[in-house]
Every structure is written in structure tokens, then in C-alpha cells.
Amino acid sequence: MFNFKINTRVRLVFLVVTIVFLIVIGKVFYIEVIQYDKLSKLADSLWSRNLPITADRGNIYDRNGKIIATNITTTSLVFIPNQIVNKEAVARDISSILGADYEDILAHASKKTSIERVHPEGRQLSYEIAEEINKLNYDGVYLVKESKRHYPHGQVLSHVLGYVGIDNQGLSGLELNYDDYLTGQDGAIKYFSDGKGHRLNLEEVYVAPQSGMNLTLTIDLDLQLAVEKELDNVIDMYDPEDALILAMDPKTGEVLAMANRPSFDPNHYQDYSTETINRNLSIWKTYEPGSTFKIVTLAASLEEKEVNLFEDTFYDSGSIQVENARIKCWKSGGHGAQTYLNVVENSCNPGFVTLGQKLGTNRLYNYVTRFGFGQKTGIDLNGESTGILFSLDRMGPVETATTAFGQGISVTPIQQVRAVSAVVNGGELLKPYIVKTVSEPETNATIVENKKQVLSQVISKETSDMAKYALESVVANGSGRNAYIENYRVGGKTGTAQKVENGVYLHGNYILSFISFMPADDPEIVVYVAVNNPKGVTQYGGTVSAPIARNVLMSAIELYDIEPDTEGMTKEYRWYEDSYIKLPDVRGMSSKDAAKLLKEFKLEYSGSGDTVLYMSPEPNYYVKKGGTIKIMLKD
């Protein structure tokens, strides 16, 4: 009995000892293996210090690989307070160099911290100032590399790019929207110190910073520069309250150019008002679109087969009565009898009222929302507005009538461009986007890729083709004739929208717009121009904005090698306009017969003989009357 009790106790003690031993072994394993990295870092932090090196943000490129946003290296001032022997002398000398307050610098030098970044006085210093500080050679005073965002083109594309703060964080535009990708991982120079913070004579460790991801945009920098130049000319000529130009590929939803005035230089964003730097008018500004919105009414009427543009007619007396409202045409006395194609060409408000009435409130409203109005487009930029529509239950006959010609509703430029792109691309409503890819900086491997995204089919291809024909006729024969380009096919629509202030329409104060596309039969680009209250000019969209759009399209012809097309509609020239004549083919004719056919032109001959071998320009192109034709003769 006695031995049994002893054996039991021995076994119990042995079991307890074994358990304790296993616990100790487990704890040692946990500390040495599982928590090794954590504890090593904690121990390391007790005697190591890091001088920060900021990482470069990712570069931003245009669609052709041209730099739009990059980084430059600057210098920042850092104190290690425990290493500064004479804090008063350091504060006195450095405050003098920086032009800063002595007490502020002294406060930085006296901080009870291991490392003190001198902010903001010592951030992003020039080379000259950094060199002066370096010559002081004070202990505890360090100059470290800091990356600073740089926009080599200044104001170009500023509202799209946005800007970054002094700590390299994105604050607006793409810099904000893609900040997680663009932000890199900071590095450091690691040195070692004793418990009092005094530097030890041990080798430093360099931890390299890692740059952020790169962005490649859908923007074409060359087209963007052309657009910016046009807006500068607009400001010089008309002194408007604001202006914008937006260009998009209607087949993909890729934004090709986007610019606003007023603008700002993101290198010096602090010099501008909050409203200027944060309001990207192309996606933020909402206003009544005016007659550019008639494209939606036209497309809906054609899709619902409510109108035949060639056979159906409308008599415009100058106004139309809808309940207690009289809606006037822009032309005093009206346009008289006209086909509905003429209604579109002439931008006749009463005619479009009747199209809205044919559709009815429900169907018109349905098409307005199907084309994306009243909702954000989802473009990858911050600050987009939704616009304002009537609620369906509040749309009576008058609201239906005014909506049909673009009054009483509020839309954004990006919404209009997307809707018109759907009208002319075969009926696909697309999601616009401005970032093409996000890529890794060292390997250039694609991390994110945005592609064409079709949201819905809003109209048929047949309707799209008819709408394109009508809008090409607007440019050749109607209110958009100032956008006509000889030997190219251009479609478009003017807009002259009254502005509202405190619920009342202003007189003599309009937003003049023009939306255009080219080539008219198979569009590659849609361009929208809006000028807010230009001065010293007759305020019509066709007078002010159409010529600007034409200039942008001319730039696109050169940049994208768009081929001439003489199959488009012929413009009927007015007495005050330079007229163009279709060049007859005189090759193979005698020089005498050729001269008779080309009597409207100046002729330059080369070669010998009496038979025309070659002519420049080539036949069937439209050439300005009085222009020079080169003729090569042979025997």
C-alpha cells in the first residue's frame, strides 16, 4: 500500500515536470521561430534609427507613351534632437537660411523625439538652400532625398491629373482616384545609436524606396495640346466666364482630350482658389444643354418610327402654343414649310416640340434615361455630377415640350458626349474611361487594364445611320455650317442654351455649344465645345463654338491620318464665304482644254508638251476658288 502511494506521487511529479518542460520548450519555439521577426524588429528599433527617403509616385503617360506626370528629386531637412549639441545656434543659423521663424525651428530642434522632420519649413528645398545648410556641418542636422511630383506641361490636362500634397498624397483627379496604385513604398537610411540617441560608429544600411505603379491614359497628348491652344484662343478672343472642350472615341468610350478654362498649374496649386483646382467642368458642371440635346429627341423619334425625315413636313410660323406657354423659334417669323430634315438642319424648336409630342411623355423620358442622363457615367475621375431631370410624375405637356429641345433639364458635358457617341456608333451606350492600364514600374507588367464596356443597346444601327445622315446635313446645309471641312465628312449640332439664375432665365447670357463627329459615316472622334457667355460676339453656338470644333477636328485629321472622302454632302456656299469647287479631271486633255475647265483657278505648268500628265491636287477634291493647281505636261 505504501509503495503504491509513492509510485503514484513519483508519476505525478514526473508528469508535472514533463508538462512544464514541454511548455518551456513550446515558449522558446514560439519566441525563437514564430515571433522572431517581430521581436528582432522591436530590439532593432531600440538602437537603430531611420532617415526617411520618400518613394517616387508612379509616372503618368499618354496613350503613346509620352510623359504627362513624373517626379523630381528635392531635399528635406531632418533633425535628430539628441545629437544636436547647440540647439540655439542651429535654430539661429537654419532659420536665417530658410527665412523661417527662430522659435519654430528651435521647437523642432528641442522636440523629445528620435527623429524630427522639419515641416513645412524644411520640405522640398532648392539645391542652393540645401547646400547652405550642408555647409554648416552641424551634428544632428540631416538632409535627405525627397521626391516631388512634377508636371512638365504645366496647366495641360490639369483637372484630369489633379495634384498632390506636400506629403505626396493624391488630392484630386487621377492622383486621388488612383492614389493606392501611384503611391510607392518609402525607403530609409538606417543608422545605429545608443540609448541616449548618440550615433554609433557602425555601418549604415540603405533600404531602397519602391516606386508606385505607372498609369497609361487614353489621352492623346498631341490632341490635348491642340485643345488647350484652342481654349487659350477662346479666352483671348471672347473673355468668357468659362469654357471647355471634350473629345472621345465613340467606338470605345476612351477620352482623347479633356480641358477647361479657368485652369491651374498643379505644380503650384496653392496659388489658385479651391473652386478652380477642384472643378473639372467636363464632368462637374451641369446646365441646360439647349439644342445639342435635340440629337436624343431625333434618335428616339427615328427609333420609334414617329417621323420620316424626308416625307413628313412641319410648318413653322415662328412659335407653337403648348397649354399656357408659347414656345418660340430662334428665327423671327419662323422657317415656314419644311421637312423634318429641315427642322433638324434649322434647329427649329417648334418642330422638335412636335417630335416630343409624337413620342409622348413616357417614351421621351424613357429615352432620356436610357441614354444615361440623370445618372453618373462612371468615368474614373472624382467629382462627377448626375445632372437634374424632371421626375416623370411632374412632367406635363409643357415639360415634355421643353425637354424635347433641351430646356428645363440639366446635364453634364460628359453625359452629352456619351449620349451622342451612342447615337453615332451604332447605338451602344458605353462607359467612358481615361486610364488605359496600370503597370508595374520595373517589369512593365500590366496590373489593371480598362477596356470597352457596353452598358446597353439604346437604338438600332439603322436609326444610328439615319441620325448620322441628318447631323451631317446640319453641318453641310444648316446651323452647323461653320464646322464644315472640305473633302471630309463632318456631322454635328449647335446649341445655344439660356442660363438660369435664381429661377429666372438671363437675357443675352448663354452657354454656346457645338458637338461634332468625324468621319460622319463611321465616326472616330466626337468633339464637344462649350463657351459660357462670350463677350463682343453674336451669341450663337454655330457662330462661336462650331469654328472651334472645326479647328480641333482639323488637328485630329493630321494626327490620326484620317483619309479624305469626297462622297459626303456638298456645302452650298453663301456670298460672304470662301467657296470651294470640285476639281474636274483634266488628265489626258490638251493644255488648252484643261485651262478652260480650270478657269476658276490659278495654273502652274511644268514639263513640256501639250498633254496633261499629272495634276495636283488630285481630281474630285474640293479646292478653294482661286487656288493654285499644278499641271505637269508631256508630249
Which properties best describe this structure?
Beta-lactamase, 635 residues, 26 strands, 20 helices, 7-stranded mixed β-sheet, alpha+beta, 24% strand, Penicillin-binding protein 2a (Domain 2), 4 domains, 5-stranded antiparallel β-sheet
Outline the structure in words.
There is one protein chain. The protein is built from 20 helices and 26 strands. The model is unreliable at 42-48 (pLDDT under 50). A hairpin with a 6-residue loop joins strand 16 and strand 17 (446-449). The N and C termini lie far apart (141 Å). The chain is elongated and about 125 Å long. Strands 2, 3, 4, 5, 8, 16 and 17 form a 7-stranded mixed sheet that branches. It folds into 4 domains: 2-34; 49-215, Penicillin-binding protein 2a (Domain 2) (Alpha-Beta Complex); 221-264 and 280-560, Beta-lactamase (3-Layer(aba) Sandwich), CATH 3.40.710.10; 580-634, 2-Layer Sandwich (Trypsin Inhibitor V, Chain A), CATH 3.30.10. By secondary structure, the chain is of the alpha+beta class.
